[in-house]
Design goal:
four-stranded antiparallel β-sheet; MATE_fam; Protein DETOXIFICATION; MATE_euk; 16 helices; 3 domains
Length: 444
């Protein structure tokens, strides 16, 4: 859901509406904290829910306890994600990089201490993760509070933050659906692997494939975040051609990265599995799955950038519909048929993921390629255009054009051109000055 800020904050920053970044971020934090309790409910009762879909009761019980230990991290993430988007949309990247490096060192040390030294097992892993999340929250929060880089965008909590919750949900919900639909489909196929013959082997291999795919996805996701920032900033600033150029550059970078990573994985396929298991059967199975993993890498690289472009433009609802069709009307059915009916087992399930990714990337490519960027820029300007001249501020929305300064605001309905409203305001001010002069000279 925090992906909504990539649209809201990014375009506001490009339009130099700096005060809105802080307001949007507060709205996001409030909204995300509100939805944490409903998310906690299935986590708490996971030991009763997972057996309903055929999972082992013992594994379900342990998964439930692990999820409960992760609840503090969920609330920490509700604050951390908006903070990172707040800084990202201002291209304040170095502080996040440094804090991430520090958190990486801390998390590694904490995991080793809790799991091996204190012998807390999975509870130690969850505790280390919770502490890492909250430490990152405090580091970034301290930076936002004290840094001069955030001086223009740092605002106090106000009533506008609560009024902006609806606007955040308008983009946040489709943004969450857009992301979750894909990852849920992959998780569902992994769960389905537990229903295959030799479920232990199938689940192990698909879990390894999913881990490889997830680890790789962080790289193109970075390109997608950069594309989202540049596109939203340029559209907000009224530079649609620069936004289009940013899209082209991001796709080229992602394409080069996909070729390098997929080629490396293919040539390392015979010993790739040893990074996760010493079981010869698992390693051989992973080598068979490697070509499909390479296809997933290529598709993930492309769709990560295109999804970033969609977030920058505010197309989250389009992305949600595309992911719904790609993975639930194509990917999951294809995977289920090939995995069970065609007896391809785990290989068939992963082919379903690849098929869904191909449909997703194709549709996103068609939409991005057919976009009229000049028209897109005009749409962003129509949503919120700001012209500042001295203390005079002009705001345009879908129905009204408001001109004024602080308390004295003149509302002009149905006016499309900023110049007309400015002329009306200037004439009013000139008339007021003439009246004041006349009164002072005793002419009236």
């Amino acid at each position: 859901m925090a992906g909504a800020l990539e649209t809201l904050c990014g375009q506001a920053y490009g339009a130099e509406q700096y005060h809105k970044l802080g307001t949007y971020t507060y709205s996001a934090i409030i909204s995300l904290v509100m939805i944490c309790p409903p998310i906690c409910l299935p986590w708490i009762f996971m030991d009763k829910l997972l057996p309903l879909i055929g999972q082992d009761p013992l594994i379900s019980h342990e998964a439930c306890k692990y999820s409960i230990w992760l609840i503090p991290a969920l609330f920490g993430s509700a604050i951390l994600k908006p903070l990172t988007r707040f800084l990202q949309t201002q291209t304040v990247i170095l502080p996040m990089l440094l804090s991430s490096l520090l958190i990486l060192f801390f998390h590694t040390t904490a995991c080793w201490t809790f799991i091996f030294k204190l012998e807390l097992g999975y509870k130690g892993a969850a505790l280390a993760f919770c502490l890492s999340i909250w430490l990152n929250v405090f580091l970034l929060g301290f930076y936002v509070k004290c840094s001069s880089n955030c001086e223009k965008t740092r605002t106090p909590l106000s009533r506008d933050a609560f009024l902006g919750i609806g606007e955040f949900f308008r983009l946040g919900v489709p943004s969450a659906v857009m992301v979750c639909l894909k990852w849920w489909s992959m998780e569902l196929l992994t769960l389905l692997s537990g229903l295959l013959p030799n479920a232990k082997l199938e689940t192990s291999v698909l879990s390894i494939c999913l881990t490889i795919s997830t680890l790789h996805f962080t790289i193109p996701y970075g390109f997608g975040a950069a594309a989202s920032t540049r596109v939203s900033n340029e559209l907000g600033a009224g530079n649609p051609h620069s936004a289009r150029l940013a899209v082209v550059v991001a796709i080229c970078l992602a394409g080069a990265e996909a070729v390098i990573v997929s080629t490396s994985l293919f040539f390392c396929r015979h010993f790739l599995g040893y990074a996760y298991s010493n079981d010869k059967q698992v390693v051989d199975y992973v080598s068979i799955m490697a070509p499909l993993i390479c296809l997933s890498v290529i598709m993930d690289s492309l769709q990560a950038v295109l999804s970033g472009v969609a977030r920058g433009c505010g197309w989250q609802h389009i992305g949600a519909y595309i992911n719904l069709g790609a993975f639930y009307l194509c990917g999951l059915p294809v995977g289920a048929v090939l995995g069970f009916a065609a007896h391809l087992r785990g290989k068939g399930l992963w082919i379903g993921i690849v098929a869904g990714s191909m449909v997703q990337s194709t549709l996103l490519s068609l939409i991005t390629g057919s976009t009229n960027w000049k028209k897109q820029g005009l749409e962003v300007e129509d949503q919120a255009a700001v012209v500042q001249k001295g203390k005079v501020v002009v705001e345009v929305d879908d129905t009204n054009l408001v001109v004024g300064e602080q308390k004295d605001r003149v509302e002009v309905e149905g006016v499309q051109k900023v110049e007309v409203a400015l002329e009306a305001l200037v004439e009013e001010e000139d008339q007021a000055e003439e009246d004041a002069c006349d009164v002072s000279l005793g002419l009236r």
